[in-house]
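Retro notes - structure team

What went well: the batch runner handled both jobs without manual restarts.
What didn't: labels got mixed up in the shared folder, which is why I'm recording both outputs here explicitly, each with its sequence directly above its tokens.

Job 1
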Amino acid sequence: MTKWEYLTLKIPAYESDFFSSAKVRMTELDDILRDYGNDGWELASQSFTGDIRWGTGDMVLIFKRPKE
């Protein structure tokens, strides 16, 4: 049976210029996904907390990969 390890990445809307008018800068998100993917992580889930339109929430990414 495959065992998994998980990693949660929180990207705060208010700490960076990552969110712009409720639109994520897709090139920055691509870079994040590519970097984690190159380390063997697969994006398992994505969600938002709060209201990122007003800089009060976060983007939450959950990654998984098989345990070695």
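Job 2
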Amino acid sequence: MKVSYEQLKSEFKRVLLSRKVREDLAEDCATLFADTTQAGAYSHGINRFPRFIQQLENGDIVPEAEPTKELSLGAIEQWDAHQSIGNLTAQKMMDRAMEIADQFGIGVVALKNANHWMRGGGYGWQAAEKGYIGICWTNALAVMPPWGAKECRIGTNPLIIAVPSNPITMVDMSCSMYSYGMLEVNRLAGRQTLVDAGFDDEGNLTKDPATVEKNRRLLPMGFWKGSGLSIVLDMIATLLSNGLSTAAVTEDKDDEYCISQVFIAIEVDRLIDGKTKDEKLQRIIDYVKTAERADPNVDVRLPGHEFTTILADNKAHGIPVDDSVWEKLKSL
């Protein structure tokens, strides 16, 4: 089914207000959830919203909490989220990283006691729209086996890198081949994943999303490389924020909260003039796009460029929503 942006935002806000979230916070949070869904990141927009409400009701999310700065060291700052609303806090932290970058050329904000930020790519995009290089990542619950194991001990720990090209070029990637959100999207659509998503109960690679959702044997992105990347991102986020690691969150908490995140903004304009920047980026884009196609009917992929098309289409024709997901939202 298709719904309008206004319908979607109204439903999000209704549910938030019914849970006694302050009106201004409900408005801002509903806007971010609607923006994420309209941009095509359904797995971390409408599909994730019921999980967000569950954590709100459990007290894992403290809606009126405000993040506070704990330490400043030149271009690096440590902040404590105090379990505030994840997407609103992440947006503030990337704004703060850009403010620091205006002074030092680079700004690094490390955040502890954070909640799930929903669509991480939104914060990289936020920086790139304003002309900065945006980099951010988060640790998470242990929901993926490290390479060589079948027991979950590492997080999917998504990493985002956004470049202010035209259109914006952005990698928004889980350290697993598929996030659990994208497994759900594929399962709801009744389809297998494009490439192997994990292992079945016998240890064989599988493209069946339901199997991997159930046994939680996600395949790390790039096999041992994704596993290694997850571990070092967790280590850096833990050290920079002085917060909890994936191990600590998994062993010491009863759900995914009090996680650690990093937001980095790099100011480009004082490093290179605008015309030269645009020319260099366009040459890279053109060089990649003009490579001979493996399939004549499929464009060469540039990361993040599809979101510009998806957003325009969803604005013009409405936002596609799985019927069962819409009914679940309406019932909250």
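One thing worth noting from job 2: The chain has twelve helices and eleven strands.
We'll revisit the folder naming next retro.
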